[in-house]
Amino acid sequence: MIRIGIVGGTGYTGVELLRILALHPECVISVVTSRSDAGKRVDELYPNLRGFVDGVFVEPSANALAGCDLVFFATPNGTAMRMAEALLAQGVKVIDLSADFRLKDPAVWAHWYGESHVSPHLLQEAVYGLPEVNRALIRSARLIACPGCYPTSVQLALLPLVESGAIRLDRIIADVKSGVSGAGRKAEIPMLMSETGESLKAYSVKGHRHWPEIRQGLEQAAGQTVGLTFVPHLIPMIRGIHATVYAELNAGYGDLQALFEERYRGEPFVDILPPGSHPDTRNVRGVNRCQIAVHRPLEGNTVVILSVIDNLVKGAAGQAVQNMNLMFGVEETVGLRSVGLYP
Amino acid sequence: MIRIGIVGGTGYTGVELLRILALHPECVISVVTSRSDAGKRVDELYPNLRGFVDGVFVEPSANALAGCDLVFFATPNGTAMRMAEALLAQGVKVIDLSADFRLKDPAVWAHWYGESHVSPHLLQEAVYGLPEVNRALIRSARLIACPGCYPTSVQLALLPLVESGAIRLDRIIADVKSGVSGAGRKAEIPMLMSETGESLKAYSVKGHRHWPEIRQGLEQAAGQTVGLTFVPHLIPMIRGIHATVYAELNAGYGDLQALFEERYRGEPFVDILPPGSHPDTRNVRGVNRCQIAVHRPLEGNTVVILSVIDNLVKGAAGQAVQNMNLMFGVEETVGLRSVGLYP
Amino acid sequence: MIRIGIVGGTGYTGVELLRILALHPECVISVVTSRSDAGKRVDELYPNLRGFVDGVFVEPSANALAGCDLVFFATPNGTAMRMAEALLAQGVKVIDLSADFRLKDPAVWAHWYGESHVSPHLLQEAVYGLPEVNRALIRSARLIACPGCYPTSVQLALLPLVESGAIRLDRIIADVKSGVSGAGRKAEIPMLMSETGESLKAYSVKGHRHWPEIRQGLEQAAGQTVGLTFVPHLIPMIRGIHATVYAELNAGYGDLQALFEERYRGEPFVDILPPGSHPDTRNVRGVNRCQIAVHRPLEGNTVVILSVIDNLVKGAAGQAVQNMNLMFGVEETVGLRSVGLYP
Amino acid sequence: MIRIGIVGGTGYTGVELLRILALHPECVISVVTSRSDAGKRVDELYPNLRGFVDGVFVEPSANALAGCDLVFFATPNGTAMRMAEALLAQGVKVIDLSADFRLKDPAVWAHWYGESHVSPHLLQEAVYGLPEVNRALIRSARLIACPGCYPTSVQLALLPLVESGAIRLDRIIADVKSGVSGAGRKAEIPMLMSETGESLKAYSVKGHRHWPEIRQGLEQAAGQTVGLTFVPHLIPMIRGIHATVYAELNAGYGDLQALFEERYRGEPFVDILPPGSHPDTRNVRGVNRCQIAVHRPLEGNTVVILSVIDNLVKGAAGQAVQNMNLMFGVEETVGLRSVGLYP
Questions:
Q1: What is the dotted CATH code of the domain comprising A2-146+316-327?
Q2: C226 contact residues in B (CB cutoff 8 A)
C-alpha cells in the first residue's frame, strides 16, 4: 500500500484527491494537512466523505509527512517549491498540483508568478505530468509537476496537429471556457454565486499564467516557436472546461479524424468522438477523461478542435492519481474508472 | 452473473441504471430497450457511457427479455403493469421503478393514476422496495415496486418518529424540494432551462400522486391513520431532493438524536448527521445515500427533520440496485459504494 | 426633488436602490457612501449603472449626509442605530434597510442581535415600513424600519388569515426558500457559486433573526400570542423568495380566495393570483410585487399559502422606495412600475 | 399612438416585445396573435404581465392585423415572408424578428433556410435593422429585417475595425457564447434544464445560419470579401451573448480604444468600456445595450474584442423597438431606458 500525504486538503483539488483516493485499492491516506482547519475532522468539513475518510486535518510539517511514500501538494502557488526538496531528500516522492514546477525557465516562472523561484534546479528535474506526452519519464520520476487545467485541455487538443505539422504554428487561438471551481475555494466576492451565476465573462485577456505553460508544451512538441493567443472565460457552472481551438491548416494535412484517433489509440483517458460530434462538458464531469472532436467548418482551411475535461479531475486530481499509478507501478487506470453522471 | 434487462433505457432512471450497472461486478447488461431509439448505439445517445456500455437499444418485447434473470422497468406509469406478469411467468424477476405496483389498494391506484389497474393481484404480491422497512421480504420477492423519490425521502425522515409514537400523527407536514430531473426526460416547455432556471415554484398543491404512497407507508408503520400535507416544489438544480418535515411532539418523546441513530444503526445507506447539522443535497449527489438531521427549533414541541437524497439514486436507480443485490444474494452495497462529488 | 443619501452603496440592497432611484423622476442621488470603495466611480464598480449614475463613492460621515432630505441605510446591522439620531436631529428623514429598528422590545433585539441597542427610544418611534399594514403611519414618519425579506413574504401571506381569525394561531409553519443574494455581498466561502450552486439546504433551523420580527408582526395583527415555526432554505438562484405557509383552519373560515382578494384590493404591489395558481419567483424578479396563491390541499382543513417576492425589491430596496414615496407625498407607485423579465 | 400588432406573441421574443411595449408611452398593443394559445388571456400565460397587458391571444389573420400601424413578427422562420406583402399593401409597416428578410441573395437564403424564398423582391426592399449602420434607411423603411442575436454582437464588435481597414479580412474568428433562451420556447429535449444546466457545448460548428448574415454585413462594411469562422456555444444561463472576436491587425492600425469610442460616439445603445475591461453579460441583461471592450493580448498583433448583449433585447425585441422608434419619428431611446439588474 502506498502511504499518501496530502498538503492542503481543504481546497477543491485536495478534497477531490480525497474522493478519488478513498476508494483506491492500492493506497492509504496517512496524513492530510490544513493550516486553517487543523484539528477538525475531515468528514465534518466534507460530509460527502462520511464513512470513507476517517481522521482529522493536521498542521503541515516535514515531520508529519516524513513517513509517506508520496506527498501531493494541493496548495496555492509558492508552497511546494519551499517544501519539496526536504521531502525528496527523505525519499518521499512528490506530485505538485500547483504551478511551482510547471515551467522550465526560472526567469519565465519569476515573470509570471511574481517572485524568484526558490528551487530552480528542481524545475529541471521535475517531470511535466501529462502522461500522453511523458509516460515513460513519469514512471521513473521523483517529482511531478501536474499540468494546469487549461493547459491539459488545450495541449491534448493540439498535440496531434502540432506534432504532425498539419497546422501553421504562428497563429493558434485557444478560446477556453471554465466552470467556477477552477478559481478554488477562496473567500472572494467575484466568485460568489450572486456574482458569477447567470453571467459570463472573459478574464485576464492581457495575459494569463497558463499561457507560457501551454506555449512551452506546444513548442516542445513542435521543436520550434509557437504563436498562441489564449483567452479564458468564466462560465456559470461549477465543473468543466471546454477548449475551442482554432488553427490554419497547412497544405496536405491529411485525414484529421484519423490523425487524432491514431495519436491517442490506446490512451485510456483520451476519447476521440465520432466525426460531427460536439462534446458536452457534463459527459466528463467527475471522471478522468478528455473528449475531443475535430471539425473543419464549411470545408475551409481552418480546423476547430473541441476538447472537454473536468478541471478538477483530468485537469487536476485525477491526472495526479494517474501519475501516481505510473510512478508506483500500479495499472494506470486503477481508481480512475468511473462513469460521468448524466444528467 | 445476473443477466439484466432494462425496459426504457433512454429516460433518466434508465441511463442512471446503466451508469451504476456498468461497473457492477456481479451482473451483465443483456438487453436495453427503447421504443424511440431502437437501433441506435447506447453510447451515441449517452457519450458518458463510451467504453462502459456496448451495444444498441432494441425494441421492447417479451422475447427480447425472456433470457434475463431480472428486468428493470424504467418506463412511464402504465407499462410495467402490462408486461410484468408474462415475465414473472417465465421466471424472470422484476423491479419496477415506475408507480405501477406501489399502492396496495387498486381503487386508490385507479383514482390517482387515472385508469384501472391491469394486474390488481400483483399489487398484493409486489414488495415495496424500501430496504430499511422490508429487507427480509425483498430477499425473497419476485416483484419489487421501487419507491418514488419523494416517498423515499419523506418516509426515511419519519419512520423513527412514527414507529416509536414520538409524534402526533394527525398533522404531519412534508415540504419537499426537488431538482428538475425528477420530471424525467420529456420534451415539455415547462421543463426548459429558460422556464425552470433561476426560479422556484410549488406544484400540485391540490394533491400529488406521491401523497397516497407516503401515507400508505406511514400508516403501515403506525398501524393507524395518518394526516399528511405534502407540498412538492421545483428547484433550479438538476439532481437532489430535500424534504423538510414538520410534526408535533408527543409528551415523553425522549432523545430524538438517539432515536434516529438507533433506528438506522447498521443501515449502509442512511446516515444520521451530528446534532445541529443542515444537510446539503450535493453531498449525496450521484450516490445511494440518505442524510438526515433532526432539529427542535427554539426548543419547542415541533420537530423538524431534514432529509436529503439524490432523486435518481436513492430515489430510483440506486435503490433499485440495492433491491437487486438483496434479491440475488449479493452483498447489499456492491456496486453502490461511491463518494459524492464536491464541489 | 428629494435629495437622497445612501449609506452603504456597495452592497446588494445599496446598488438596487441606485438602480431604482436612477430612473425615479422625483429624486436626485446626492451622496453615496462606501467605506471600502471611497473615491472609486460608482459605475466602475457597477457597469450596469454606466450612463445612469454619475459620481464617486464617498466616506460615510454626518457632514456628507447633512444636506440630504432622506438617507437610506443599506448597511450591515449595527450601523444605522449609531448614526440615525444625528441625522434626524438635523431634519433628515431616515429609512433603514437593516434590522436596527425592526423590533420594538430592546431586550428581544439584544438577544437576537448580540449587543445592546444603542438607541432604544428610537425603537419605539420607528415605523415598521410595511405599507400594507402601516400606510398612514409611514406618511408621517421620520424613521422607517424597512421589513426584512423573509418577514415581508410571510406576513403578506398570513395577514388576511390572522386578522380575520380564520386560522389557529398556535401552530403556524413557514417554510421559506431564498435565493443567495439574500446573504449579501460578502466574501464568504459558503456563498461561493461552487458551494451553493446545484445544491439546496436549510439553515438556522434552531432559530433565525427573522423569527421574532415575523412573530411581532403577526401578534400585532392578531392581538394575541402566535406560535410560529420558521425554517429558511438557501436555493441555487440569485434572486427570489418563495414562502410556503401552513396553518390549520378554524371552523367557519369562509371563502379563502375572496378573503385574500378583499384584504389586498387596491394594494398596488400585492397581487392575488387566480385559484389553483402556483406563483413562480421569476415573475416578480426585479419588480416591487408580491404574488400570492391560496390552496386547501385535498379539501382538508390545512390552508397552504404560496407567496413570492424579489428579496431585493419588495423585500428591500423597492419597499424602501415605496416608503419614500409615501413619506414625501409622491404617488406610491412612482419609480416602481416595471415588468419582470421572462424568461 | 402607434397601433401595434404582434404575430407570435407566445415565444420569447414575443413576450419580450410585450414587456417593453407595455410601458412604452407612444404605442398601444392592439392585437397579439398565437396559433397555439388563441382565446387564452395573455397574463394567464405570462403572470409577469398581470396589470400591464390586458386581453387575449387571437388567431393570426390579415383581418385581425389590418387596423395596425405596425406589425412585429416574432415567429419561426418562414411565416413573415408569407404574410408581409399583404400587410404592406394595406399600408401596415412590418418589423420581422425572424430571419426571413435578413439576407439579400435569394439563393443564399434558400441554401441556409432549406426552401425557396416566397417573396424574393422583398429581400431587396427590406432594410437590415441595425441602427448603428442603417439609421437613415430605417427611418423611411416600410419593412425591417431585425438582425439576429449573434450577428448583432459580432458586427458591433467588428465594424470599427472593418470599416477602418485596421485588420486583415481573410481570417476573422468569432467564438460566441449564448444563453439558452436563444433557442426559443420550444418543447425539445436538448433544451431541458437537465440537459443544458451545468454543462457547456459548441454546436453547428460545420456551419450556422448566422454565418452568412454576419459575413454579408461585414462585406458590406468592407466593400470586399471577408473570411470568417463562426462557432456558437450553448451556455448554462438563460439570457446573454458574449462574443469573443479575434483578428490580425494590419500595420498602422492606430489607437484601438479611440477608434471604437469614435465610431460609436453618440450611439445611445453601444457602450465602449474603459481599457482593460472585461464585460459581464449580466450588466446588459434585460436592457437594450451592447458593451464592448478591446484588447491586444501581450501587446501582440492579435486584437480581441469582447462584446456582450442580451440576446432577447439588443439581440431581438429591444432592437426591434429601437427600429420602431426610428420608423415612427419617436425619440430613439423612448421605452428603452432601463438599468440592468445587479446581481
A1: 3.40.50.720
A2: none
